[in-house]
Amino acid sequence: MSESIKPRLEVCMSPALLHLYDVKDSIVVIIDVLRATSTICTALYNGAVRVIPVADVAECVRIGQALGAITAGERDGKIADGLQYGNSPFEYPRNFVEGKTLVLTTTNGTKLLHMAKDAKQIITGSFPNLSAVCDYLVAQKQHVLLGCAAWKDRVNMEDTLFAGAVVNRIRDHFTVNCDSALLSESTYLAGKDDLFTFMQGATHFKRLSGFGLEDDIRYCLTPDGANVLPLLVNNELVAYHQ
Amino acid sequence: MSESIKPRLEVCMSPALLHLYDVKDSIVVIIDVLRATSTICTALYNGAVRVIPVADVAECVRIGQALGAITAGERDGKIADGLQYGNSPFEYPRNFVEGKTLVLTTTNGTKLLHMAKDAKQIITGSFPNLSAVCDYLVAQKQHVLLGCAAWKDRVNMEDTLFAGAVVNRIRDHFTVNCDSALLSESTYLAGKDDLFTFMQGATHFKRLSGFGLEDDIRYCLTPDGANVLPLLVNNELVAYHQ
């Protein structure tokens, strides 16, 4: 790509809009802030060898057994039948996850990841690895699509906020000709001084706080607690090392 | 509906997301700020008897001939072949449009209108009739879906800004459990002091200003210049009178 032309930076606010974007020539950042992509970077940051994202519980069990791996995933806020662990980043401290493989099934995040499989490259993003994502994207000098996992295809607040945080941080290195990017950024700027309070009207905040998960939400909205870059290689997310 | 339970207020940011919402029990507000719904309320405000929205140019010509009506519509920023007038609100002053029927074809707005045909009721909204829309919605005490026409299914800035303006104005009368509504409102609040300047990064601003349409944009972003309520009755938009 010519140095004089900056690569494109776009935001896709819902998987139901993904077909409107050209993923083939872009790095796609999968964003599922509450909580899949926050948990993925946390597990890798704490030494997990890899995280294998899978679409459903049966596949999670099958691969988990074949590899002797940790199986994890929730449905309706509870650990899914047949799996061992849930979606909380706090379940994956170093003394548990180091050196291990985690097989994870989530609904929205995994769905988007599979939909974007033709992308030039796939990474995952969330506030705990905000800086790692931004630094990587700036260094690659490629088109970028920030893909929000959303909630059952409905646009959600937390993924949009993260997309906005990335846009705000790296926009000078890119051409931004995408209203979703501008909307995300303006919402992030409105909320950035206290994301936790800003999130309290959001649907997912109400859903998770009903399960007593305020600490999870707070962690998932805090930048750079697990600053590693999960990169999809052969359908496995591994920590990228330069 | 019980007086103790407030009706629902939601925002659908793109026609490609409309299937996620239950339109049957809602008043749907069709929003196509640049420029279809701004032009519709302007024509009715200036005395047009009705505006008939149609899907394509051929239908526009056919109905226009049958009714002896004004035919209007643009494709790629120019008056479409076979039609008489364009999409600019300034083409429909009182001394031209009063007492007449306008048959209008637009791409995004008309598409959404037809998609939402099962709604309990359909009205159209834009900044020139902001107060009329808000007053009507508050008075009806029904569920409301603010439907953004967007641009070829991509979320756009101007329709989101108008949705946010409505949310901000009437939210106390409704239950707002919709992140798209919160995002729209926060973006509107960020831009409201100078919507014209705020819009200058948006894709449609660049597209229209390339055609020298800054005056159109300025009018379409100014509240209450044509404060009438277009209501769809038998596939025709007519001014609602209490």
How is the secondary structure organized here?
Two copies of one chain form a homodimer.
Chain A (H helix, E strand, L loop, with lengths): L8 E4 L13 E6 L4 H10 L4 E5 L2 H11 L2 E6 L2 E2 L14 H4 L3 E5 L2 H8 L5 E5 L4 H11 L2 E6 L8 H14 L8 H13 L3 H4 L4 H7 L4 H7 L9 E4 L2 E4 L3
Parallel strand pairs in A: 1-8, 2-7, 2-8, 3-6, 4-6
Antiparallel strand pairs in A: 4-5, 9-10
GO molecular function (chains A, B): 2-phosphosulfolactate phosphatase activity; magnesium ion binding; sulfopyruvate decarboxylase activity
Protein name (chains A, B): Probable 2-phosphosulfolactate phosphatase
Family (chains A, B): Belongs to the ComB family.
Describe this structure as you would to a colleague:
The structure is a homodimer of 242-residue chains. With 242 residues, chain A is α/β, with parallel strands linked by helices. Helix content of chain A is 37%, strand content 19%. Chain A has a single domain, classed as putative 2-phosphosulfolactate phosphatase. Chain A has helices at 36-45, 57-67, 94-97, 108-115, 130-140, 157-170, 179-191, 195-198, 203-209, 214-220, and strands at 9-12, 26-31, 50-54, 70-75, 78-79, 101-105, 121-125, 143-148, 230-233, 236-239. In chain A, helix 5 (130-140) packs across helix 6 (157-170) and helix 6 packs across helix 7. Chain A is globular and about 50 Å long. The mean pLDDT of chain A is 94.
